[in-house]
Amino acid sequence: MISVPITIDLVSDVTCPWCIVGFKKLEQALGQTEFSQPVSIQWQPFELNPGLPPQGELLLDNLQRKYNMSKADSENFSARLKSIGESLDFEFNIGEDFRMYDTKAAHRLLTWAQQFNLQTELKLKLFQFNFSESLNISDTEILLSACEAVGLNVEEARAALDDELIRKKTDAEQQFWLQSGIQSVPSIILNRKYLINGAQEPEQIAKVFEKINSEALTET
């Protein structure tokens, strides 16, 4: 039994496949662990590909540019993701024409959605739109459609995209994590102290829960 409150910051990007994989494994760890105190989750912004043009960039080109992957490597990567997704009840539908898109606007909407306690729902819908349906998640109407799908007010969401305070808050949050040393995603930070890098297995995440609980009890 974990008897202390757990706060989870998930630093991630909607275009990062390992971020949805990591979240699914986190979900499993949460389901396998008994908590007596609330567990809160907050998604934090991280842009993997800032400044992409409106038409995005082919995944193959992106992987070649950033990681020097060949076409065969990219195809193997896509097949591996599909298999992992099936094991986690998430559909990766990544073909040769799959594109990466700028996520700056998506992050602003996620910042805005937090006040309505719909941040996780919106994030998961954006993951679905991106990886399962190959939609352009930099397109305003696609983003608003995701908001509507999870019960957010579309006109308020449209206004949030142009809200200067939301822009500043989102940028400041991203800078905070960058300056804190986060350079890759997913990064899961528990109670602003314990860092889990990458998409770790549920058992490993559960061990961190136990460590937090043990250390907290020792301190008291």
Polypeptide structure, described:
35% of the residues are buried. It is globular and about 55 Å long. The chain is built from 9 helices and 6 strands; from the N terminus they run βαββααβαααααββα. Helix 1 (17-32) packs across helix 9 (202-219), helix 4 (104-113) crosses helix 8 (164-179) and helix 6 (140-149) packs across helix 7 (154-161). The mean pLDDT is 96. It is α+β, with helices and mostly antiparallel strands. It has a 4-stranded mixed beta sheet with strand order 2-1-5-6, with helices on both faces. The chain has a two-stranded antiparallel sheet with strand order 3-4. A hairpin with a 3-residue loop joins strand 5 and strand 6. Helix content is 54%, strand content 12%.
The H-and-E topology, N to C, reads as EHEEHHEHHHHHEEH
Our Rg estimate from Cα atoms comes to 18 Å
State the end-to-end CA separation: 17 Å
The portion of residues forming beta strands comes to 5-15%
Strands, helices and their partners?
Layout: E1 6-12, H1 17-32, E2 39-45, E3 57-58, H2 59-67, H3 71-87, E4 99-100, H4 104-113, H5 119-132, H6 140-149, H7 154-161, H8 164-179, E5 187-190, E6 194-197, H9 202-219
Parallel strand pairs: 1-2
Antiparallel strand pairs: 1-5, 3-4, 5-6
Q: Gist?
A:
The protein has 220 residues and is an alpha+beta fold. The protein is 54% helix and 12% strand.
